[in-house]
Design a protein that fits this description.
Layout: E1 24-30, E2 41-43, E3 65-66, E4 74-75, E5 83-85, E6 96-102, H1 112-115, H2 118-121, H3 126-131, E7 148-152, E8 157-160
Antiparallel strand pairs: 1-4, 1-6, 2-3, 2-5, 7-8
Length: 161
Amino acid sequence: MTRKKFDCDLRFSGARSAIAQAAYSHVIFMMNDFTDENGGTRLVPGSHMFGHHPDLIKDRDIETVAAEGNSGTALIPDGRDWHCTGANVTKENRIAMLLTFCGPQYRPQINYPVARDRAILKPASNRQKALFSLKIWWGYGRTGGPNLDFINPDEQTWRKR
């Protein structure tokens, strides 16, 4: 199987030969069996060391491998791995739960502070707010002074400690 468009979850700039350090990884929990037929995640082995993003023209025919596994299996690829989903040619859904782990200075692709349901945030403890990506880390993620602690998405302002 070949793919015309790949994802690479690190956006770095610079020379194509630079190999970025691993910044984060995913955990893909297979809630049912992942097979080549049901469109499970596909990977380009070794692509985390290519030092560049996929080129839509040059890399369109690159070979991929299906990450197959039984229900309950966890796939943990490096965030730099080129990956995509395959075509589900079955009549069944393929179900997965995706978790992304990254250092606090990085933000994942989804803007969780903005996307989070406000009803969940109101009663949340400071620990829960930190897990929801609302905690400022050494100045990263702030717009105000460095003595602020958490993002307040409702007011689009910052709350002081």
